[in-house]
Amino acid sequence: MERLLKKMLPAGAPPLAVDSADYPFAIEYHGPPVPYDIPEVIPIEIGRIPVVPSLPSPGPLKKRSKIGRLAVDPAGASPTSVIENHTAMDRLDSVEVRSSGALGSAAFPDRSAELSDGIIDSSGAVGFKEVEGFDGSSEGIDSSGVLGFSGEVKEGEGFEGSWEGTGSSGVVGFSSEFKKGERLEGSPDDTVHGRVLTESALSSESEFRSSALGDDEALNPEAKRAVVVTFQDSARSSGPASLAIGLSPRGRRVKKEACYQCLKGSRFTEKEACLACDAKYCSGCVLWAMGSMPEGRKCVSCIGSSIMETKMEKLGKPSRMLKRLLSSLEVQQVMRSEMDCEANQLRPDDICVNEKKLTQEEMVLLQSCPCPPSKLKPGYYWYDKFSGFWGKQGHKPHKVISPNLNVGGNIMKNASNGNTGVLINGREITKVELRMLKWAGVQCAGKPHFWVNADGTYQEEGQKNIKGQIWGKPILKLLGPVLSLPIPSNPSNLSGEEVNNMVNRAVPDYLEQKTLRRLLLVGDQGSGTSTIFKQAKFLYGSVPFSEDERQDIKLVIQRNIYNYLGILLEGREWFEEESLTDKRKSKQFHSSGPENNGSDEHDMTEYYISPRLKAFSDWLLKIMASGNLEAVFPAATRVYAPLVEELWNAAAIQATYRRRNELRLLPSVASYFLEQVVDICRVEYEPSDMDILYADGITSSNGLACTDFFFPCLAGDGNGNDVDDHLDTLLIRYQLIRLHTKSLGEKCKWLDMFEDVRLVIFCVALSDYDEYFEDANGVGINKMMESKRLFESIVGHPALDQMDFLLILNKFDLLEQKIDMASLTLCEWFDDFNPVVSHNRPNNNNSRNISNGATMAQQAFHYIAVKFKKLFYSLTGRKLHVTLANGLDLDSVDAALRYAWEILKWEDERLAFGEAVDSTEPSSYSQ
Ligand SMILES: Nc1nc2c(ncn2[C@@H]2O[C@H](COP(=O)(O)OP(=O)(O)OP(=O)(O)O)[C@@H](O)[C@H]2O)c(=O)[nH]1
Ligand SMILES: [Mg+2]
Prior knowledge:
Blueprint: H1 2-8, H2 59-64, E1 70-72, H3 77-84, E2 91-92, E3 95-97, E4 114-115, E5 118-120, H4 160-163, E6 191-195, E7 205-209, H5 216-219, E8 271-273, E9 280-282, H6 286-290, H7 320-325, H8 328-340, E10 351-353, E11 356-357, H9 360-368, E12 379-383, E13 389-392, E14 399-400, E15 423-424, E16 427-428, H10 431-439, E17 449-452, E18 457-460, E19 468-469, H11 474-482, H12 496-504, H13 510-515, E20 516-523, H14 529-540, H15 547-590, H16 611-625, H17 629-632, H18 635-649, H19 651-658, H20 670-674, H21 677-680, H22 689-694, E21 704-709, H23 722-731, E22 733-739, E23 759-765, E24 772-774, E25 780-782, H24 783-795, E26 804-810, H25 812-818, E27 850-851, E28 854-855, H26 856-876, E29 881-884, H27 890-913, E30 925-926
Parallel strand pairs: 1-3, 2-4, 3-5, 10-12, 15-17, 20-22, 20-23, 23-26, 26-29, 29-30
Antiparallel strand pairs: 6-7, 8-9, 10-11, 12-13, 13-14, 15-16, 17-18, 18-19, 21-22, 24-25, 27-28
């Protein structure tokens, strides 16, 4: 410490007397200004170190802890400052550094820190570990690969370089080569044994030879331990394979059944296993090791990996431990993610049927047929398309599934490894099957070859006549289970052709064409398509949003709010900077004394936040900048809710929020959610309908969403249309398909898929006329012009030729708000807008300026509508239907969609009765 202080003082300064028993980490320097930048250490009150409040802390760690369990927020600054304040002479019993890069040498500036127990977790593929006796003197612990275990390590690459001279000890490492890897267990002696499950050599026991052991110290169990182990993976042909490091604290062997995180416990300890690598964690560690479980029970480093075959059956079945640790809602959510997430799904090429790997389509066909194979797991199967028999390759039949599915290759004679000489549909049957056939009264003398159909009727090869029905005898129902042979539950299952037609049909059948109307809803970004889509669900859906959907929406809202918060935090930084600059300028201006020159570190503005909140803010901004928000949340939601609450209530953030109009990236709905930030961040938060409506980004991740509904019948209109309308509402189903512009593809090529839609609803935000976005080259583009461009390309698309179009001019409320402040002529397309302004103002509200009964906003609407109509006519020679809407208003959207309904009805009538029905045509305008 003395040396450190000496270094920090300017040359020539007298040495400081340091009481080694009780010196502060930082001292205030009062000397003359120094010519270099002094490293800044933000003081933190020990009592206010962020602790992790809501996750159960691992028991063993807590017991030994002297100063509690530290949760060091990720990102360089935070751990540094936290640890700095504790490492004077403290012994840190338990430290957690989360996120990659957090554990740089900077994290442990005071080399005298002793971490007797550390968990280094990372968002990358990097693991954890107990760092026993670690004295922080490691040079090899770099920020890119915590303890040298990096997801980046490739076959043949070693860790020696980064590890040499570390003089610390760790436990187990994984490299990316061992995604499915088990732990390596090692002791610092010449030979390290480990078991590695690799993709290529599942379950193979490989021996690892240690080499390049750093130095003798590494072998001394009492000293700092570091062992570098190279190993020869005998299962790999490529020779010396990846390196991994197997170390054990104090030379102990890691107990096989211990928790993989804290290394405590025995096989009797209750543990939860990772579905991908089978690493097992005790109840104290499981949440740390698995984080928010976005793909269910997987270590953080296994996220994205596929799960082990043996774990397939466990999917979606929560353990008692999980139920204890999480609320029931959270358990449900984790289980759902586990079952639904892409990485955990069975991949088609994991299934081989009749020696041919399945394609995606075949997989869908197999799984969605009326009688699919149960609990399908990766493996090799045989399938008899004619009879529907299904079994594991080399084994007797296991099930009778739907017949005639076009999946896999042709069945092989030896598919079930039978040796009876009797063939059914080209497969030599097994002995038990033969016995069964005999019981069924089937004549099997002379090793006949049979053709057996799905309904059990059979005939001998080469003969025309049906010889009988195998399943006819009641005794077979009893015998099936005895012989462990499947009996079709209902031989009159759908015939295969029906099945194929059902699953493969590309065009709706006749009936559906009669009764289904498809509406395609498109518009430029932010035009309001998803709002209108959600309103349609609220308006006409019997269950607008299921419980599952609401849960997903909850997560989206929680994630969004962190985004909004991030924008506020960034804004706060700007405003603080700006205020400080102003303050300094005015000080300089008002005083002439030299003592006021330069920056005043104690300057505080209303945007000042405490160092602890600042650390959180820095961390959040860093995460956002790295685009990793998804990986960190929603686990963080649980952990950081109290911090968010504190932050939100901080005067600085409130002051920033008051200037929200200056924050360009903050969407207008952000304020709605930020007002409720504290509630939203709670675990028990349930989104209201209003929240769902306002929430961004929930309609669909791939930009395509659809909802089916019937238009509810309105009360009679008195025109005698009631009965017809009522029939309509009963018979005709509508499907609203919302397509995000991002999903249109180059030159809107995906529109080809929508040839059978009946009406295109194009949405334009009226408020876009004075708004801009930056294109890829940083050029500002007017949003209305962009909408116009998109409109032109969609209208002109060959797939939508001759199709009816309804233009919804949305966000009328916003147009009303801004039209008097920002002229419509700001958009070059509207430069000839020349409204008639009446000077008889009914009140002081300018937006209510009216002429001939029309407000300025209404005139603007008509003007824009005509612009689009003319454009549409010039492109198609046809008439465009236009309506206005306020997407946030249910009735307004109802009116707009009913207008769409009218257009379709009119079109139906026109088709049915010819052009003579002009009188019922809806006007091309609706308001
Ligand atoms: N004031 C007002 N806001 C609206 C209206 N319609 C939509 N919004 C808001 O405008 C924003 C964008 O609307 P979305 O429905 O998400 O627009 P989108 O077409 O799905 O656009 P992207 O999500 O960007 O693709 C959301 O925050 C909506 O809440 C409206 O009529 N009035
Ligand atoms: Mg949207």
